[in-house]
Amino acid sequence: MAVKSCSKSLKSNPFITYRDPITGKWIVADRDLSKLAEQPQLAVG
Length: 45
Description:
The chain is α+β, with helices and mostly antiparallel strands and about 45 residues long. The chain has one helix spanning about 35; strands at about 15-20, 25-30. A two-stranded antiparallel ribbon has the order 1-2. The longest helix is centred in the C-terminal third of the chain and has 5 residues, at about 35.
């Protein structure tokens, strides 16, 4: 079987992850800051 190389670049990850310091749980959030602004507990301060 022949192998083809791909010249396309990978898409960037649309999510960010961080650990809640209070609960210790990992949280996945959308990178889009407009969506983060709608959720005050996830807003970057």
